[in-house]
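In this section we walk through a basic example: taking a raw amino acid sequence and producing a predicted 3D structure, encoded as discrete structure tokens. The instruction is simple. Fold the sequence below.
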Amino acid sequence: MAVVVPSPAGDRRALPGSVGGAPPPGELPSVHALLICADLPGLAISAEHGQLTGKGLEGFYQSGRRLISRCELRVAGRDPVALQGRLLSADRVRFMAVVRTPACVGPDPEVGVERLRHADGTERITLRSSAGRPLRLRVEIALGTDLADLGAVAAGRAGPELPASVHGSGLRWSVAGAHCQVTADPPPEDALASAGLLRWELELLPGDSRTIELLVRTDRAVRPLAKAGAGPLSAATAEGDDPRVHELLRTSVDDLRALLVRDPGHPADVYLAAGVPWRCGLAPAEALWAARMTLPLGTRLAVSTLRTLARTQLTGAGPDRGRIPGPFRDAGRHLPPSCTGVEATLAFPVVLAEARRWGMAEQDLEELLPVAERCLHWLRGAAGDDGFLRDRSSVGLRRGETQAHAHRAALLGADLLAGCGRAGAEGWREWAGALRRGFRRDFWLDDRAGGRPAAARTADGRLVPHLGAGAAHLLDTGLLGAGQLAPGLLDKVQTEQLARLLGSPALDSGWGLRSLGVKEAGHSPFGHRGGSVRVHETAVAVAGLAVAGHEKEATSLLRGVLDAAESFGHRLPEMYGGEQRTAGSAPVPHPAACRPAAVAAAAGIHLIATLAGIRPDAPAGTVALSPVRCAPLGAVRLAGLRVAGEPFAVRISRLGLGMVEEAAGNLQLGVRG
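The resulting token sequence is shown next.
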């Protein structure tokens, strides 16, 4: 599916110009009041009343094309009175309505209407009678479509409805090589192509029910992905004193499964699309971040994602050899756009190294190891004489966050090379050590408040001082052998100061970390990188703070995101407003945010897994626990995880003590303080 997204996020392709009352270029129609169910490449976008009226984004979509824009139900000549619409799962939504027939006596409706709509293009309409006499009802379904691309729909350029033709037990539409047909079971008694109308005369006895099933299909067959139990993500569960833990994990796993997409050229490999509805394609850096955060659910998704991106790696001669391509992303008002390809290149050896620790298959490791080595080769060539990684969008600029990614790639890359018997590990450890020393010296701004890390360093040595959630990446270390963590980029005193800053009201909104502090120039609560809360960065901060021993700050951020998740029905958008939390307030989604989104759903898993602090070393046959000692959510039990390819379950007590309940028989277990 194509990536169809606007310019506010910077890394998104601006929509073409609009007409009439449609949104202007780069501006999106609101989707957060809509019910979106997804099972990519299928989508169904509905208003809460359940009728598809052809307005806005409503409709059934397949591979980025709207197959049906209008599906309006009438019973006994009347529109059903909508009562409720809600998601049952990531790929299913249920609508309830009632109908008062002309023969009704009294105020009570006699017919209930249930509509179950699936993202795969299936809708089941069930009518139930509570009348005390037989009913004969005329049921009409009016259908229509424009067969427009999602981008054109969002920009208001969808065009008029197409003429239909009667086809079998339904209707069919065609335009410019695109086709769609709707078949009905039972077949309609009448089909009017000119009006796009299907009709039935149904008889319902007292207490009886009748169901009509609609199948929306395109001529191009889409191979469905396997669901729970056979897919790349294990069926993990959580339970504990705080019931939100269960709901967040369940919803996060459900949303991730809905975002799985097959590599078109290699259908055995899958990856996570960035998000619905605007970013239904591959975003290399985000796909890797999400795969890394889902490693507790097994290594299959990480391996498939790594394989998919390995095929895009630049292998020719020149300075770009080894880099993974990726678009540029807006970095806010203070910095030029950053290259997501650089981020993906640096994440590749990190994800591979950690997947090895979680127990990936040896043959997959042998296949992907040369790709990781080429990523490291590119890193060595991209670093300047001072050891810092140079920016691709601005000559001489060194970003602080990029140095953190490079440091992590060097350390985990060294661990990977050493563990696989490859040369060069010691050289990368020395390079990382030099980067640490240089960063602590040249990227730290001293002041009377204790100082702060700079966001970037310019070619002439000036420091860009603004502070935001991106600084959390300085705390993200990485998993090494024997359950050890890589050393941090900052020293102990600097880490303590950064923890204080991340826990301050300037950055902690009460719902999570702001991407830019409220005291910084250019702050906006809805700035994509200028003040909104990005769930992924908050999850990185929670894990980094917990590992560094700053559990007070980690707990505050964790609870804030859990509260936000509850407000969003546990389906977190990729970002939401960074307005300060007050009594009775609720987080507000960013207008351009995807929901569900891969990094947000994966962040939910990362937050919950942080509570247990699982540190596996499958090659060495060990797994250790380092749980959050203050047990911020009380007792928690996680089951259905995967370590070394086998089921893994762990329990954390109210005292913060960890115990492994299920693990592979050959693993040596341990608990760390």
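Looking at the output, two observations stand out. The first strand starts at residue 35 and ends at 39. Confidence is low (pLDDT under 50) at residues 1-25. In the next section we compare this with other chains.
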